[in-house]
Amino acid sequence: MNTPGTLAHHVDFRRLATQQREIDGELYLSQLPRMIAEMAAGADASGAVRVHLRFSEDGQRRVNVAGSIETTLTLTCQRCLEAFDKHMSVAVAGVVVGDDDAAANVPRADEPILAEGDTLDLHTMVSDELLLALPPVARCGRPDCVSNYEHVAGTPEPAIDDKHNNPFAVLGQLKRGD
C-alpha cells in the first residue's frame, strides 16, 4: 500500500483514459481543507484517505472515472455533541467535463466531474465526493446517546393555552368587532 501523500494533485485525465490507467494512492486528511472544516473540533487530520480510480473512454470519447475512496472521519454527533469516528467508503462513477454546459449533457446515470483545462484536480474531486457522501445529520449511534434522545423525544410537549398564547387571537377579536 502506498504511504499517505503519494496521490498526485493534478493529472492529465485524457491521457490516463486513452491508456486505460488506474491510480492507487493515499493522501492525508490535512491536505483536504474542506473536509477539515466538516470534522469535529480538535479532530486528528493526519488520517489517510485511500483512493483507487480507473480512467477510461467511452464510445463518444468522454472520459469516465470509476473507483472508490475510503477514510475515517471524526464527526460531531448532532444529538449528544460528542465526537465519533465515521468510516466512509464512497463509490466514484462519473464523466470528466470542462464546464457547466458539458455537465448538462452528461447522462443521468453518471455524475459530472469538473476539470480545469487538460488537468483534473484529484484532491478537489476527493473532497467533493466525500462531502457529498457525508450524512445530512451526523449521529454517533452510541447506546447511551440513542436512549437519551429517545427519552427526550418521547416526553409529551406541554399543552399550549390557546387563549393566551395564540398570536392570531387579536385578529379574531378585530373580526368579531370586540
From TrEMBL:
InterPro entries linked to this entry: YceD, YceD_bac
Record carries keyword Calcium: no
Keyword Ribosomal protein: no
Keywords: Ribosome biogenesis
Top-level taxon in the UniProt lineage: Bacteria
Role: Plays a role in synthesis, processing and/or stability of 23S rRNA.
UniProt record similarity statement: Belongs to the DUF177 domain family.
UniProt-recorded name of the protein: Large ribosomal RNA subunit accumulation protein YceD
